[in-house]
Amino acid sequence: MTGVRPLCTTAERICTTTEGSDPAWPADLLYGRLLATAAQQALGGGPAPRAGVRSIDGSLEPLALDRWLGGLEAADWAALAVAAAPVLDLGCGPGRHLVALRRIGKRALGVDLSPVAVQLARRRGGAAIPGDLFGAVPGAGRWNTALLLDGNVGIGGSPALLLRRTRELLATDGLAVVEVDPPGAPTYRTRIRIEARDVVSEWFTWARVGIDGIGSLARRARLVHEDTLNAGGRWIALLRRP
Ligand SMILES: C[S@@+](CC[C@H](N)C(=O)[O-])C[C@H]1O[C@@H](n2cnc3c(N)ncnc32)[C@H](O)[C@@H]1O
Q1: Smallest CA separation from ligand 1 atom 18, residue
Q2: Is 93 a pocket residue for ligand 1 (Cβ < 6 Å)?
């Protein structure tokens, strides 16, 4: 797997890899295609397409399309309860948290790399814009809460950099609501790709962060680990920008 190197990176093109002649898709493009299919199948009461996330160590987890297109669990509601508006949902996906925030009267905006995810979020009634959270984000420095839920602390593969970026987006006293792995779980950088029945994505860098590792990462980003929420087996760190 380490020999796989995409030879092109533009989202419009399918890449050729060094692994045989199978084409590897840009990850955002394949994710968008699977999301669109899952949304369409959900309308007809059908199951989401079978897809997984392969780690460079060979392990495979399901790609949670159903979850992202579905509703909230207790941990999500607990996270939204502590969120002060305006809320910025970083990597909002198809917008389940945006929809819930709207329902409880908290103003929120989602940002997501995937135009398909943004379109689905808007269709569900959320406010969302396409874009890279490391790029231009409206209202930078004025958000009272930033959400990094459901593994999104792994975006980009450098949680320290991601938390520094999150700090920049927050207002003074703003809160980063960051989902992490349970006690005992390691903090590490990895490479992953999306795998579906007939196609794979290019490999991209990701990270996993355990609750035991979040304190030092927060300090490096000049955030204060103020509290931790724990509901339904999920762990959410609350990091304050002083
Ligand atoms: C694991 S999904 C989570 C979706 C959503 N937070 C939820 O819990 O339903 C991760 C999302 O992050 C988005 N994403 C990844 N890198 C990003 C970046 N640099 N800027 C903005 N969004 C990004 C992906 O397109 C994807 O929709």
Answers
A1: 132
A2: yes
Atom of ligand 1 nearest to the CA of 148: 6
Nearest CA to ligand 1 atom 4: 93
pLDDT tens for 43-94 read 877 777 889 999 999 999 999 999 999 999 999 999 999 999 999 999 999 9
CA distances (Å), origin 215, targets 34, 77, 112, 161: 35, 23, 26, 14
Whole-structure pTM over 0.90, yes or no? yes
Residue-range definition of the domain harbouring residue 38? 15-240
- Asked if residue 91 is part of any domain, the answer here is yes
| 7 within a domain of the structure (yes/no) | no
List the 108-112 sheet strands across, edge first: 128-130, 108-112, 87-90, 143-148, 170-180, 234-240, 224-231
Q: What is the enclosing helix (H) or strand (E) of 35?
A: helix 27-43
Domain count for the chain? 1
Q: Is the CB of 111 under 6 A from ligand 1?
A: yes
- Would you list the DSSP string of 53-116? EEETTS-EEE--HHHHHS---HHHHHHHHTPPSSEEEET-TT-HHHHHHHHTT--EEEEES-HH
Question: Looking at residue 138, which CATH number applies to its domain?
Answer: 3.40.50.150
In angstroms, the CA 57 to CA 1 distance is: 9
